TrEMBL record:
Subcellular location(s) of the protein: Cytoplasm
Family annotation (InterPro entries): Elong-fact-P_C (IPR015365), NA-bd_OB-fold (IPR012340), Rib_uL2_dom2 (IPR014722), Transl_elong_fac_P/YeiP (IPR020599), Transl_elong_KOW-like (IPR013185), Transl_elong_P/YeiP_cen (IPR001059), Transl_elong_P/YeiP_CS (IPR013852), Transl_elongation_fac_P (IPR011768)
Biological processes, Gene Ontology terms: peptide biosynthetic process
Organism this protein belongs to: Chryseobacterium soldanellicola
Species lineage: Bacteria, Pseudomonadati, Bacteroidota, Flavobacteriia, Flavobacteriales
Entry keyword set: Cytoplasm, Elongation factor, Protein biosynthesis
UniProt domain Translation elongation factor P/YeiP central: residue ranges: 67-122
Family statement drawn from the similarity comment of this UniProt entry: Belongs to the elongation factor P family.
The protein's name in its UniProt record: Elongation factor P
Pathway: Protein biosynthesis; polypeptide chain elongation
Domain Elongation factor P C-terminal, residue spans: 130-185
Task of the protein: Involved in peptide bond synthesis. Stimulates efficient translation and peptide-bond synthesis on native or reconstituted 70S ribosomes in vitro. Probably functions indirectly by altering the affinity of the ribosome for aminoacyl-tRNA, thus increasing their reactivity as acceptors for peptidyl transferase.
Length: 187
């Protein structure tokens, strides 16, 4: 059993009959009164985010997790199918368990977080960035380059990304999976 002093980013805890992952935390020691930890927790089962404050020394139930690399195979109307790279077993995840899934393409390697006790999947993490081909892009307006002008582009996974005016269909770009922003053009 851990205490609120052990809270860190990425820690999975059992709270309110659900499993939550700590996505933000802040240890606060006010001048008057006891210390506390302000957290932002994300449910690994349904994706809901909630804010919670733990008093100093508060006991929390830590959930032991393991991570494994899986290869994304395909999706259907309910979720996504993955293959374990070690033993080739397949795993299914609901659509709500993966954030920014519109940037996944077949063959991409994804890290899946599993509960250590019974190896039930909790969530999946995409790489920090992915390389995608631009399928369609709005035409750039000539003379509109005085500022950092952006235009819409559709990448091979079907996701919309705002890109600079010089990006054309057929270009390969690097996209952040965290916020879906354009990072750079890849040669």
């Amino acid at each position: 059993m851990a205490t609120s002093n052990d809270i860190r980013k990425g820690l999975c805890i059992e709270f309110s009959n659900d499993i939550f992952k700590v996505i933000e935390f802040l240890h606060v020691k006010p001048g008057k009164g006891p210390a506390f930890v302000r957290t932002k927790l994300k449910s690994v089962t349904n994706g809901k985010v909630l804010d919670n404050t733990f008093s100093a020394g508060h006991k929390i139930d830590e959930v032991k997790v393991i991570t494994r690399k899986f290869q994304y195979l395909y999706d259907d109307e309910n979720g996504f199918h993955f293959m374990n790279n070690d033993d080739f077993s397949q795993l299914y995840l609901d659509k709500e368990m993966i954030e920014n899934s519109q940037f996944m393409k077949a063959g991409e390697e994804v890290t899946i977080i599993l509960k250590e006790a019974d190896e039930t999947p909790l969530s999946a993490e995409l790489p920090q960035s992915v390389f995608l081909d631009v399928i369609e892009a709005d035409p750039g307006v000539k003379g509109n380059t005085a500022t950092n002008a952006l235009k819409n582009a559709i990448v091979e996974t079907g996701a919309r990304v705002m890109v600079p005016l010089f990006i054309e269909p057929g270009d390969r770009i690097k996209v952040s999976t965290e916020d879906g922003s354009y990072l750079e053009r890849v040669k």
